[in-house]
Each structure stands twice: as C-alpha cells, then as structure tokens.
Write a structure and sequence with these properties.
The complex is a heterodimer of chains A (43) and B (568). Chain A has 43 residues and is mostly helical. Chain A contains one helix and no strands. The radius of gyration of chain A is 17 Å and the shape is rod-shaped. The N and C termini of chain A lie far apart (49 Å). Helices cover 77% and strands 0% of the residues of chain B. Chain B is mostly helical and 568 residues long. Chain B is globular and about 70 Å long. The model of chain B is unreliable at 561-568 (pLDDT under 50). In chain B, helix 11 (233-250) packs across helix 23 (536-556). Classes of the chains: A mainly alpha (43), B mainly alpha (568). Chain A binds chain B through residues 1-5, 7-9, 11-12, 17, 20-21, 23-25, 27-28, 31-32, 35-36, 38-39, 41-43, and chain B through 71, 74, 78, 81-82, 84-85, 88-90, 93-94, 96-97, 209-210, 212-214, 218-221, 233, 263-265, 268-269, 272, 275-276, 279-280, 283, 503, 567-568.
Chain lengths: 43, 568
C-alpha cells in the first residue's frame, strides 16, 4: 500500500499534501479556540 | 403560504430537477452511470459530498437543537476534518489505484468474497432503512405545521428525486447537489439575516448573543469527559472521528461522490473542502437557532412547538391541566421578556453590579420557564403514550412560518425540500450502485455495458420505491424511529473495522476478518440493547473490536497456503 499512484500529483497550492493537511487540521484547532473565546465573550 | 411562496417553491424544485436531467444525460456505460464519468472538478465533488450529508432534517433540527440545548451539537463534527485528512492520505489513493466503483470491491481483492458481501450487505441494510427516514422526517414536520398530506409529500419528494437520479445516475446527482447547496445555503443565510432584523429595534445582535450566552446557550465547547454525554469535545474528536472515518471512507453514498473526481487530486480536494467547510457551516446554522432563541426572549413562545401531540392533549383528559400550564407559561415568559429587557438595559448602562443582578434575575426566570416546559412535556408524554414527543424539528420552521415575509417562506421550504432530495438522491444512487456492482455483477457476471446501465436504473428505481414505502411505514414506528436514526452508528464501526484491518493488518486473512466482524457486531448490538453508552461511542467500540477479534482469530487459526491477493 505504499506504492505511489501514477495520477497522484502535487496539490494546486501550498506545494505538498502535508501542508494542505496542516491547513485543514490547523483550521479545526483555530475554530475550537475561537469557539472557546466566543463562549467566554458572551457567557 | 402566499402565492409567491408557491411560485418560488415550484420554480426552484422544477429548476433543480431540470438541471439534474440536463447535466446527467448521456450515460452509456455502468462506469459512466455509477462512476459519473470520473470527470468532476473538486468543487463539484465537495458540494456533492456536503449535500449528501445535509438532509432536510439536519436543516430543520439543527436550529431547534440550538434553541433547546445550545451550540454544543457542533462538537459532533470535530472528528470530520481529521477523518478527511486520514482518508485523503490513505484510502483515496488506494480506491483510485484500484479503479473501484464501490468501496466494497476493495475488500474482495484484499480478503475474499464473503467479507466483501458482508460489508456491502451491512451498508444496504443500514442505509436502505435510513433513506426512508430521510424523506419521512421532514414530510412529517411539513404535514404537521402546514397541514399538507404526508403521503403526497413523501411521494412528491421521491418522484422528483427519482426523475433525475434514475435517469442520469451519479453525474445528475452531483449537478443537482450543486444547485441544492446554493438553495440551502441561500435560504438559511437569508433566514438568519431576517431573524436578526426582526429583533426589537433597541436590541443589537451583540445584545441578543449576550442574552443567549447568559442563559447557557452559547456553549460550543464542553471539555468534560462523560461517555454517556452525546456531545462533548472528546466524543466529537474521538467518537466523531471514527463515525466520520467510517461514513466518508466506507459508506458508498459518500465514496461514490469523491470517486467521481477526475483525478486523485480532485477527489482529495473535494473531500478536504468538506473537512474545512462543515464545522463552520454547522456553527452558523446553530447560530440561526440561537437568534431564534434570542427572538423568543423578547416575544413569548408557545409552550411546545410541535402542534401534533398538543392537539392530542387538548382532546384528552389532560386538556385542563395542559391549558393551566400554558397560562402559567405565558405569564412566566411575559415576565421573562421584562427581565431580558432589563438585562439589555443594564448592559448598556455599563454598571457591572446591575448587569450581574439583571443576569441573575433573567437566569431565574429562564429556570422557571424551563421547569414549566418540562411539566408541559410530561403532560404531553402522558397523553401520547409510547411516543417520544419532541419539538426540536419544529422550532425553526414554526418561526419561519409565523414571522418571515412572503417569498422567503417559499425559499426556506425549497431549502427543506432540497435537503430531502439531496440526501435521498445520493443515497439511492449509492444503494443502486452497490446492488449492481457488489451483488448483481459479482454474482451473475457482467462487463459494465449498456445493459448494466439499465440494471443500475432498475436498482436505483427499486431503492427509491423502497425508501418511499419505508417512509410511509415509518409513521407507524413511533419511538423506534429514534432507534433507526442511530442505526448508522450500530454498523459503521464494524464496517470501518473491516477496512482498517484490510489496510493496516496485512497478516489477517479473510476468514479472521469476517468472523471478527460478526462477533464485534454482536457486541455492539448488545451494548445498544443493554447499556446507556452514547451512540457515538458505538463507532469506536465496533471498530476496535473488529480489529481485536480479527487479530485474535488470525492468531488462533492462521490460514495455511498463499496469501490472497493483496490490495496493496
């Protein structure tokens, strides 16, 4: 399962898929943080 | 409903069906019909993925959930972005390399036919039952609030969906999904803006949020660890992760969406788009519910939003008790409006002591109102034995029908229908695909020619008819509806476990995986029957047990001889 797919290419932005994954997970972490701040601001 | 609402509703639905028919024309092979021609761009894949999981009941119940329970439901989706990343890095490349049409094809290449059939049949059972509820639940809400005939409603949605889904297959579904998402998003955004504008002139959105926050409704993060609590940060991140991993990785209704991507890159981007959009989208929909909650801090709401069970109470021996409770509730809520006004005025005054005192009075008023609502619910339950009456699905639409202007009501109803249609189309398309590829083609033989397109259409049509028939039957299921709703979590963990074993445990053969899955499923069903474990945890339990039992069985009885063909 480690064989690379011939159609697999680089993403159209951020250079590597690893960076795209960091973006997705970073957004989740940021959202959780913002939700927490939102909750505190209006509590 | 005004004439304008009817025109908006009819025109929107007609355009969606026509668009799906137009874009889905010309499928000449099973690969074109089921695989959508594998020519879709990432944004179409992403919209189709989001639309398939966004049912009408999600659209109706999410604001109601915020009204009743606050925003903590958003945590349910925290596992989704993580699952999208894991799937993008692992399963998607494998699916693309093997050029499969269904997720379950991979299992035969890795294990054997019986394991493939087990996973396919588990999918057909749980998704086949769930698709009926996809159209039943919103039809019930519309029939209760608008007086529409529920049977006509079910048949109307079913027929509209089948027109383009049966004819055009995956491509028609994807293009109709793109329009449906525009309608759903636009309808919800406009409704949110109108609700904010309908707040009293002296109450800003910030004031409204402070009122909701002071009453505990702005609670999107709950970091407590309670396995019996459905919505916490941890159940969302862990249980939700396994649920989403299974849903997006092994449920054909989703796999079919991203396998239609023109390349691995397009499929990945579509799935990751969903991973980035879903959490904020759910947060905003919950925000609409929060605005409805804030609205009803300045206007007295009804004791119970679902008029169906209330009508039963009014005709029974509990009518007097319920009327008395309604009167008490109205008085309490009128007093609560004054407390909310005082809280807003205190905040504007800037005196911290006055704000704290007004907040405490508002919270006490809310506790009294909630106590009366619980008493009302007890009376309703007494008069409706054997059912679990809830008004979560009715809060938002009841507000829309009573408060929004002509035209916008039609648009919101079009969004409700779009949600029903988008889920049903993705689901019956996937059920048809699995029936054709994993059962008909595999057991009878076939090469994917034009004949299989017609078999695919027949299977999709049959599943559409089954969905409508089950939706008709669902009205007699009563509280079992809730059990069917959590059906996904009863099977997803097991299916995911089979795929994880296939992917990560190369020494495990087909027999061990098959029997491990059967034992794990039995344990999950026992947990459902005999424990109070939150349903999201079934996904984790089922998945972990399949891995554990498959590994144990492979050690107890190692299969001699050559290893079956490895998917890797």
């Amino acid at each position: 399962m480690s064989e690379r797919d011939p159609k697999e290419g680089a993403p159209p932005f951020l250079g590597t898929w690893r960076n795209v994954y960091i973006l997705v997970l970073g957004e989740l972490a940021l959202l959780i943080l913002l939700f927490k701040l939102f909750m505190r601001a209006f509590a | 409903m005004s004439r304008l609402d009817w025109v908006v509703l009819a025109a929107t639905l007609a355009f969606i069906v026509g668009w799906g028919l137009f874009k889905g024309r010309g499928a000449k092979t099973a690969e074109g019909y089921i695989g959508g021609g594998r020519d879709q761009r990432w944004w179409l894949v992403g919209l189709s993925i989001i639309a398939t999981q966004t049912s009408a009941i999600t659209f109706l119940s999410t604001p109601g959930q915020a009204y009743v329970d606050g925003m903590r439901f958003v945590q349910f989706y925290f596992g989704l972005p993580i699952a999208a990343v894991v799937l993008s890095a692992t399963l998607l490349p494998l699916y693309h390399r093997l050029k499969v049409l269904t997720a379950y094809e991979m299992l035969e290449k890795r294990f054997d036919l019986k394991t493939r059939l087990l996973a396919a049949i588990l999918f057909l059972i749980q998704r086949g039952l769930a698709v009926g509820l996809t159209i039943f639940a919103p039809a019930l809400v519309l029939s209760v609030l608008l007086g529409w005939n529920i049977h006509v409603n079910i048949v109307l949605v079913g027929v509209l969906v089948m027109i383009y889904t049966v004819t055009g297959g995956t491509k028609a579904v994807a293009w109709a999904h793109s329009l449906q998402m525009v309608v759903v998003t636009g309808g919800m955004a406009l409704a949110g803006v109108m609700i904010a504008r309908h707040l009293p002139a002296h109450v800003s959105v910030s004031d409204a949020l402070h009122v909701a926050g002071s009453l505990g409704r702005l609670n999107p993060i709950d970091a407590s660890f309670n396995p019996n609590d459905r919505y916490t940060l941890w159940s969302g991140l862990l249980g939700g992760f396994f649920l989403m991993l299974s849903y997006f990785g092994t449920d054909q209704s989703q796999v079919q969406r991203y396998l239609a991507g023109s390349s691995l890159t397009q499929s990945r981007l579509g799935l990751l788009l969903n991973g980035m959009v879903k959490v904020p989208m759910q947060f905003l929909i919950l925000g609409v519910g929060i605005l409805v909650f804030a609205h009803y801090q300045f206007h007295a709401p009804p004791l119970f939003f679902n008029p169906g069970p209330v009508a039963v109470v009014r005709q029974g021996p509990e009518a007097g008790a319920y009327a008395a409770l309604e009167a008490k509730y109205e008085a309490a809520r009128t007093a609560q409006v004054a407390k909310a006004e005082a809280f807003v005025a205190a905040r504007k005054g800037g005196d911290a002591g006055a704000v704290a005192a007004a907040k405490a009075e508002l919270q006490a008023a809310q506790r009294e109102s909630e106590g009366l609502r619980k008493e009302g619910l007890a009376v309703i339950r007494k008069a409706n034995p054997g059912t679990n009456p809830s008004d979560v699905n009715y809060v938002f639409l009841a507000y829309v029908l009573s408060s929004l202007p002509a035209g916008l009501v039609g648009l919101v109803l079009a969004a409700v229908f779009s949600g029903s249609m988008s889920s049903m189309s993705g689901e019956i398309s996937a059920l048809g695909a699995t029936t054709v590829v994993d059962l008909w083609r595999r057991l009878r033989g076939g090469e994917g020619g034009k004949r299989e397109v017609w078999v695919g259409r027949a299977a999709t049509f049959a599943w559409g008819c089954f969905a409508m028939a089950f939706a008709e039957y669902a009205s007699r299921l009563g509280s079992l509806v809730e059990a069917v709703n959590i059906l996904g979590s009863l099977f997803y963990g097991t299916i995911l476990g089979i795929f994880l074993v296939a992917f990560y445990f190369k020494s495990v053969r087909g027999g061990a995986a098959f029997w491990g899955a059967l034992v794990a499923e039995a344990v999950v069903l026992a947990c459902f029957a005999f424990t109070k474990l939150g349903f999201l945890w079934y996904n984790l339990v089922g998945c972990a047990l399949v891995v554990l039992f498959a590994w144990i069985f492979s050690r107890l009885a190692p299969t001699p001889g050559p290893h079956p063909q490895d998917a890797a």
